Amino acid sequence: MTVAPYRPEPATARRRGGVLRVVAPTDAAPLDPSCAPASAAPFVRLHTRQLVTWQTARDVRDWQAVTPVPDLALEVPSTWNAGLGASHRSYVFHMRPGVRWDTPDRRPVTAHDVVRGFKRMCNPVRPSPSLAYFASTVRGLADFATAWAAEATHRAGDAATLAAYQNAHEIPGVFALDDETLVIELARPALDFVHMLALPAASAVPVEHDAFVPGSPEAAAHLRANGPYRVRRHRPGEWVELVRNPAWEPAADPYRRAEADRVELRLSDGAGRADAEPTDAPAEVPVAPAVGGLPAAEPVDGDGALGWALDPYLLLNLRDPVWADPRVRQAVALAVDKAAVADLYRRHRPGVPVRIAGSLIPPGNAGHDTADPCSTGDPARARELLASAGHADGPPLVLIHPQSGLGPEVAHACASDLTRAGLPTRAVGLADAAYTEALRAPATAGGWQLAVAARVPDWLEHNGRVFAQAMLQATPVPGGANHGGYAAPEVDALIERALDAPEPWRADAAWRAAAERAVADVAVVPILHRAPVAAPRRPDRVDGITPLPPQGYAVDLTAARPGVDE
Question: Quick check: helix, strand or coil at residue 399?
């Protein structure tokens, strides 16, 4: 891997303390970890902990930057420490002493809290976006989630009902032997399982959270913390204020710090509106997958960099009958002028490498096709396909897009291309929260046929599933990024083959084949592959800026030091 070292500017004389202000999208606030997307991990990290985590890296060529390290667990299970069984299906975790909840009695975090976190990620009201990863890996978790969803169709969705079901049923493959010992059994060996355990969905959850519906404002206002900060005040959609957690012991947390006295997240709805406080925030942290990233971000140089993004791509809502004829879908793929979108990115994000994309999986990710075809717009051929399909004029297609990043510019460029090719299209911008909801529930969130989206990998090693499985697998379990409803038995079989593969090269071949078939079916239209970007090396009045490469190269907010002059 050839990646340029990350070298923050030398720090000036500063003392610990002060207020760190950060701008964040409304859907990435550090709320209930059971429902938080992987992109919220830099914020969730402030107040929650998982069995394993990531460590910062000043030089992202360092192998430790992409290798999980023990967090709530004392060790990462392996055959060397007898924590991983010979079949590679049984993991035993021993809990780290000294980790406590922000409760009046400062109760220890136990293995039972981790079990509760696994259950809560399956809740039928707001299931975790990462649920599909765990459902296809952990023994019995898919059945647990499916049964809970079926039960919820004829019962109330209040907190008491949800808690009663959760506490009366067990996941066969996740159980505590005692307060200090947790066992997780897999349905099959998984090369990437330990990486999955660093996601927000795998956070420990205290019993106090049972009193609130997952993802609700009430849950966000009553979070109990075991990380360096706790939520003190929260106004949904506007701001979150976190202060130091008095129950947090630095000696029991090797990979987090608490440099700032207070962290203020000023939430933007993606339309340029944020909390009405002064806008002199000293740091703005990039959070994936905002289309186009942030103008302040700097590229992680080198063709060998891990974690390139699919940014942007067009998502087709295949539930809509307009896409029933494959020739109409193919016309969309031919109509988009990808070179023009690349020029748009280069103008607005100078210095960030982008490539015209023909494949679903970008460079630096498992399953990438190194012979990536680089086709771009051919409106004449698109019109021929529409004519051969007998496509009749109808209402304009609705192309939704986020208001953040380059979403509006990309959407209007694509809408113009499609209209010129004979598919009249109207771009509709949505605030981040509304856009996320429209993708999550396309059948109920208003009619749309197309969406501009971006996907950044949730981890960096053995990560083919973060693209191919999440975006393509037809599964009864909620979660993932298959927002268009794509379903192809051949692709599902290839995904299962990849998940079952004992060797990385076999898995990569299956991921690649699944992605190729989906692109041929025009389940999505890849437009660009974008190099990973890191946050500004030293925002004004902030020191201690170091990136977390597996979390989209976002800043470790626990280590950022606000400008408090000596």
Answer: strand
